[in-house]
Amino acid sequence: MGYLLLKNISKVLTFDDNDNIFDGFDILIKDNEIVRIEKNIEYEGCQIIDCKDLVALPGFVNTHHHLYQTLFRGIDEVQEKPLFPWLVGLYEFWKHIDSESVYFGAMIGFSELLKTGCTTTMDHHYVFPKGKSPYLIDEQIKASRDIGIRFHATRGSMSRGKSKGGLPPDCVVQDEEEILLDCERVIDKYHDDKKFAMNRIALSPCSPFSVTLSLMEKCRDIARKKKVMLHTHLAETLDEEKYCIEIYGKRPVELMESIGWLGEDVWFAHVIHVNDDEIKLLKGSGVAHCPSSNMKLSSGICRTSELVKAGVNVGIAVDGSASNDGSNMWEEVRRAYLLNHLKYGTDGLCAYDVLKMATRGGAKVLGRDDIGELSIGKAADIILLDLNDIAYAGCHNVAVGIVTCGNSSLVKMTIVNGKIVVKDGHLVSVNEEEVRNRAHEIAANIVKTERESRII
Where does the Amidohydrolase-related domain start and stop, copy by copy (predicted)? Predict the structure, then answer.
């Protein structure tokens, strides 16, 4: 790969241990690693990019997503509904997904993320329709490698269908033995625990209302044996809370504590409906804050400030595109800031704090210390922003400008693992128009098929 030199960067927001912000600095990259950050670097025989008037910061880290849902945005049947009715309506469309739809759904989500400054993402894929290929995680990993994004795939699962008292229809759930065998297969085939790994695996039973506790315990045991992380939805809605109390006699966080699902190797999506004692229990665990999804589905507001103060690792996430309806990470940062201030007023997190949550915070949620900051020895995951548009004129604080100003969320450049993958707002490695057209065709066919089946 060689050397890449970013010259004359207007401002470098490092999010390092000292929260350094540098003016007029250069960054030298060797292969996939940052090796120098200083002024006036001279290095012969390397690619040089003039970054005058640009701002550099670590790439955003997206801590929760459902990539296949990019194909199911704006479906009339599920608009203006809270989570449970929303899910029930969408399961009927999701039961049609297959290998190709999962691949192109991932390509769409990855494309949006990269273009809006995300360099590392996870995905929580838990829908495996009967009669279709069970190797859907493989399609996501293939897409991540084709497009060049750092990717934590989670082997999701649903084992409790309607016939067993769960929410999803039986046609999209799997037997526990089938789930567990594939969990081990995916870990053994794809998990990379080395520094700068591009692919890692976690295990992620979907939620307390779609899996059995037996499955959660068995996934816990496999994950800890294989030294991978655990993930699930938790405390997202009052409906979930009611379900857990009625079925298990415990609130969601209490339930997780009872089965050993807390700690640095566990992170949860949403975590809205928690009390003060439960926040204390979550210390050391991770939370993926999903502001847009929580607002659209009327789920509530995450207690982000209290979680941070209690020592919970908090990152930001776009969540599934059908509940957002985008994979725009830069916009998610803005909404996280505004939602925090709606809840906490002048005691809310500042713009810099929210940016740090979206970068270094997200890295910590995913259990990584090699990404999320611009420091020597860290991964060359860098985004360059052009704040010279009229929409930023008159702004005197760069962090505030990034979070609250601007009419576009497209970055100037995205560098992942030392490779340029977005330039001037456009993807470098794939043909955007071809991906968009094929993905939209697949999505239209699935929706048409389901709607026609209802008429018959």
Answer: 56-421
